[in-house]
From TrEMBL:
Residues 98-108 have a biased composition (Polar residues). It is found in: Cell membrane. This is Cyclin-dependent kinase 14. Keywords: ATP-binding, Cell cycle, Cell division, Cell membrane, Kinase, Membrane, Nucleotide-binding, Serine/threonine-protein kinase, Transferase, Wnt signaling pathway. It holds the Pfam family Pkinase. PANTHER family: CELL DIVISION PROTEIN KINASE, CYCLIN-DEPENDENT KINASE 14. GO terms for biological process: cell division; Wnt signaling pathway. Its main location: membrane. The lineage of its organism: Eukaryota, Metazoa, Chordata, Craniata, Vertebrata. It catalyses: L-seryl-[protein] + ATP = O-phospho-L-seryl-[protein] + ADP + H(+); L-threonyl-[protein] + ATP = O-phospho-L-threonyl-[protein] + ADP + H(+). Its EC number is 2.7.11.22. ATP binds at residue 162. It comes from Cyprinus carpio. Residues 133-419 form the Protein kinase domain. It is a peripheral membrane protein.
Amino acid sequence: MCDLMPAAQPAEKIGKMKKLRRTLSESFSRIAFKKEDSGFDEICVTKMLSSSCWGWDSLIKPLDTIPEDRKVQRTQSGFDPFEKRGLVKRVHSENNACINAKSSSSGKESPKLRRHSSPSSVTSPKFGKADSYEKLEKLGEGSYATVYKGKSKVNGKLVALKVIRLQEEEGTPFTAIREASLLKGLKHTNIVLLHDIIHTKETLTLVFEYVHTDLCQYMDKHPGGLHPDNVRLFLFQLLRGLSYTHQRYILHRDLKPQNLLISDTGELKLADFGLARAKSVPSHTYSNEVVTLWYRPPDVLLGSTDYSTCLDMWGVGCIFVEMIQGVAAFPGMKDIQDQLERIFLVLGTPSEETWPGVHSLPHFKPDRFTVYSPKKLRQACEISKLGYVDHAEELASRFLQCFPKNRLSAQAALHHEYFSHLPPRLWELPDMSSIFTVLSIKLQPESGDSIQVCSKSKATSNSKH
């Protein structure tokens, strides 16, 4: 907003006009454009030419936003503000100022100058445009979206295109809106990067960085359990990404191997935030229709809708056990009742003593469940390998607690003894730095079905993949 000043005498007015014109000409000749106050209002525009307001600084845009042809014209002609009144309105419209003054020549609004562009780049591919990406092959299809491998015509990089089909009567799926809005604010090397969003009448396309496989496919390729050192690196990265999201009060709510992407170098990235939710304070209740059955915690299976980051930590425990032993920790085959039975068979059937408040959960009926005593995790697994890796069973048991509040947090887990062999430098890395920037960190070759023991000497299988 410019301050209004009293009308000057004719001689003073002419002097001021000449001085202003000289100053502006020198400024434009040096191409020293400076943008200051953009709050330039209608009063200032109408009063400007009668010396009541001199808001010229607010008309000048930064150098990098002015097309080359405009820059040349201004430096050659010196720019006379009194002869180019139409440009006053043109420049201000770019600054999003609300100006209703009419052009003295045509009375029509002048077109906006195209930012960061030149006449030669009109047809160049740009971000945010559907034709800026080339589909290469289909990677997968879900109930409302299809994922393609693609290539950016802007920079030539490979991308993953998640094309969400829009129904006229239903509009944009809420999960897609939530995924896009959350990922825009999450910048971490262990979280998949959202490059671009393209919206058309028929589709909404989310453009992600391309990562060639996921943990589920990786484990299928190397059955029988992964190399213990690789399990440690994958888990550390998972906890690192989760700690980052949890500190921002965001729950993933759908942790499973299919949603953990693995790059060529072994970098793990959290993906598919369609069910993610920002956890506000004070606490609200949420849907219990979250998390794939095998990775769903017992509190949610029993109907709890009041949960926090502990929801994700149960999934971490299930994935950890599955990476080590090669099979799911609790592979329910029928329904929720069967899933709960498998959990209680290992961890023990809960009671008010072991789980305060369990009797108040909607789906907990004591007479529906067999009473089991808790066991050690290694005793419960068909081919358990937890006992062969230092501190692995203790850490897994800290995640797999029926009572939600007893589960270890992601931040605390990063400092567990299980990770004591890793270089201290890993805990000092910035959010956007991969653990593989530390020279001593690298994936070990997998050996299929055979188990390689980290610090104990009893490897039992010698089969090869």
